[in-house]
């Protein structure tokens, strides 16, 4: 293949710079003051970890130790190793009030939200792959009941919006089964993504020539053995790119779990914006964090594709 002209690279750089200049011009039009220097504190908090009062009580300070005696009676509690004491001896505090700080670096709200997004996305993806594989095999099964059930599941889930499904799972099933917001979020994402994975698996299996299964059966394998040892490995190689795309969509769709009172990356961004009034910096940072997640998944899948191509 003949190498591309460097002028195309220059055109790409010029277009990116033009878009950046346009965005900067737009901020000048609204007289926006950028505060990028504040972004690091949304990621890492260097001022120390706040120590809250466990209950309503009276404070007794001894050096860097705080002893709190409950107002309504009961056993007093000692909070040791307070680096910065923020209450005085004899002061009355209420549950949740900050009594001091422990020195150190703690994750900021955006990193905490990123961790929640990672947990939800990873668990949802695992369950979606299992559910999608089962439904995909059901779509190509010889049993009419398995085909019909898999088809109903796929069409029902793909034909309704994810947000509506989340409302049903969280407010209906969550109430009936007493599910936490985290479990409801993982369930919604896994069921939704599993329907798309099922179609990817079905397409991958049907793309494998039928002669492969016939050859496996002629060697004495059962239908399940031929599917597991011959057809599915080949289908997986063909399905990796769309599966990666579906995984990326799942990470982005996880932003909807904020309706379940979960402080994921998107909700953490909203909370930071509401308290700092720095929407542009925060949302650009949140977008970059999502981009890093999806980019890492894409790189991993490309490496996996190359490895499987050489096997």
UniProtKB/TrEMBL annotation:
<feature type="transmembrane region" description="Helical">
    <location>
        <begin position="282"/>
        <end position="301"/>
    </location>
</feature>
<dbReference type="InterPro" id="IPR035906">
    <property type="entry name" value="MetI-like_sf"/>
</dbReference>
<keyword id="KW-1003">Cell membrane</keyword>
<comment type="similarity">
    <text>Belongs to the binding-protein-dependent transport system permease family. HisMQ subfamily.</text>
</comment>
<dbReference type="GO" id="GO:0022857">
    <property type="term" value="F:transmembrane transporter activity"/>
</dbReference>
<keyword id="KW-0029">Amino-acid transport</keyword>
<comment type="function">
    <text>Part of the binding-protein-dependent transport system for glutamine; probably responsible for the translocation of the substrate across the membrane.</text>
</comment>
<keyword id="KW-0812">Transmembrane</keyword>
<feature type="transmembrane region" description="Helical">
    <location>
        <begin position="162"/>
        <end position="184"/>
    </location>
</feature>
<dbReference type="Pfam" id="PF00528">
    <property type="entry name" value="BPD_transp_1"/>
</dbReference>
<feature type="transmembrane region" description="Helical">
    <location>
        <begin position="7"/>
        <end position="26"/>
    </location>
</feature>
<keyword id="KW-0813">Transport</keyword>
<dbReference type="GO" id="GO:0006865">
    <property type="term" value="P:amino acid transport"/>
</dbReference>
<feature type="domain" description="ABC transmembrane type-1">
    <location>
        <begin position="114"/>
        <end position="301"/>
    </location>
</feature>
<dbReference type="InterPro" id="IPR043429">
    <property type="entry name" value="ArtM/GltK/GlnP/TcyL/YhdX-like"/>
</dbReference>
<dbReference type="GO" id="GO:0043190">
    <property type="term" value="C:ATP-binding cassette (ABC) transporter complex"/>
</dbReference>
<dbReference type="InterPro" id="IPR010065">
    <property type="entry name" value="AA_ABC_transptr_permease_3TM"/>
</dbReference>
<keyword id="KW-0472">Membrane</keyword>
<keyword id="KW-1133">Transmembrane helix</keyword>
<feature type="transmembrane region" description="Helical">
    <location>
        <begin position="120"/>
        <end position="141"/>
    </location>
</feature>
<protein>
    <recommendedName>
        <fullName>Putative glutamine transport system permease protein GlnP</fullName>
    </recommendedName>
</protein>
<dbReference type="InterPro" id="IPR000515">
    <property type="entry name" value="MetI-like"/>
</dbReference>
